[in-house]
Amino acid sequence: MIKLNGNIISQNKYLSSQEIDQYLDKITEKITEVNNLLLIPPDYTRKSSALGKITEKLYFKLVDYIENIDILPASGTHDPMDSDCLKSMFGEIPAAEFLAHNWRTETIKVGEIPAEIISDLSKGELKEKIPLQINKNIFSDKYDLIISLGQVIPHEVVGMANYTKNIVVGCGGDQIINKSHFLGALAGMENIMGKDHSPVRKLYDYCQNEFLNQLPLIYLMTVNSPVSDRKTGLTEIKGIFTGSDRETFEQAVALSQKENIIKIEKPLKKVIVYLKEDKFKSTWIGGKAVYRTRMAIADGGELIIIAPGIHKFGEDKAIDELIRKYGYCGTEKTLENL
């Protein structure tokens, strides 16, 4: 298996374009004797991470030397990317190079998480085994190398986004996506946001150790500025971390906790959040306006969300219908109906 390891952290404010290019040159120099490469970047909902640009850079640094490069955006249950979104995020990469992930039809079972593991992680609230379904292309034996690209950032379900989440959820099937998210809801967002070893992260670690270690899989993870550029909508990159082991992820987590968690002196009385029209089309995604501000808002405070693009509840038609039917019930009511 090809080993790609190495980190770069800006000694100034953020990495320059030249520093990023030089880093990627060093990474790509190590990729030899690869005939088939699979890149797994984030989807359009993570456009601001600038990983679309990094994916584009990697593609054009390698396309003349590798026989075949496929790109599988880790879309999870999000809307599939159309040609306009692909162009906007990934630039000049030909559309024919992209594969589409369908979490309902494009996955195969690669393993199973035992019921006792789930019960332990959920403190007895969930007591059933979970089949692990992953996009069939990842386990096809076609690829000599798979590079998963993603941003390490505080996340409401897993604590800190990316690493194995990009594969298990971004390229996962319905059971692991739905039940790991439910596990996160049971744990409580306030208990896990911005932390590493959450129950959901432990679940994904189990999947990595038991079912993903056989893959020729490398993780390239960025830590970015918490603020987007007003003109481009992209964030600056503070550090890039590349490797296949958990230590690489932990190093990225440590930097992200410094860069991406903003602590305030006193609770805020009013917060206004604007959700970009092209990026936030459902309350499923728009809920981040709540998740990422609620711990900073005072009791009795006010949150105003301006969301001109939102026109549905769920990204998926069936999920949208379920949300419209049942609405928000809360954890206790949901558990009563299990």
Describe, in plain words, how this protein is organized in 3D.
By secondary structure, the protein is α/β, with parallel strands linked by helices. The chain folds into two domains: 6-261, 3-Layer(aba) Sandwich (Rossmann fold), CATH 3.40.50.11440; 263-338, no CATH class. The protein has helices at residues 17-29, 51-62, 83-90, 115-121, 165-168, 174-187, 189-192, 199-212, 246-259, 283-286, 288-291, 317-326, 331-336; strands spanning 6-9, 36-40, 68-71, 107-113, 130-135, 145-151, 154-155, 159-160, 217-228, 235-243, 268-274, 297-306. Strands 1-10-9-6-2-3 form a six-stranded mixed sheet, with helices on both faces. The protein has a two-stranded antiparallel sheet with strand order 4-5. Strands 7-8 form a two-stranded antiparallel sheet. Strand 2 (36-40), helix 2 (51-62) and strand 3 (68-71) form a beta-alpha-beta unit. The longest helix has 14 residues, at 174-187.
Short characterization:
With 338 residues, this protein is of the alpha/beta class. Helices cover 34% and strands 22% of the residues.
Report the span from N to C terminus. Answer: 44 Å
Poorly predicted runs: none
Question: In CATH, what is the class of the largest domain?
Answer: Alpha Beta
Rg, please?
20 Å
Determine the fraction of residues in helical runs and give it as a percent range: 25-40%
* Percentage beta strand: 15-25%
The main sheet comes to: 6 strands, mixed
Give the SSE layout.
Elements: E1 6-9, H1 17-29, E2 36-40, H2 51-62, E3 68-71, H3 83-90, E4 107-113, H4 115-121, E5 130-135, E6 145-151, E7 154-155, E8 159-160, H5 165-168, H6 174-187, H7 189-192, H8 199-212, E9 217-228, E10 235-243, H9 246-259, E11 268-274, H10 283-286, H11 288-291, E12 297-306, H12 317-326, H13 331-336
Parallel strand pairs: 2-3, 2-6, 6-9, 11-12
Antiparallel strand pairs: 1-10, 4-5, 7-8, 9-10
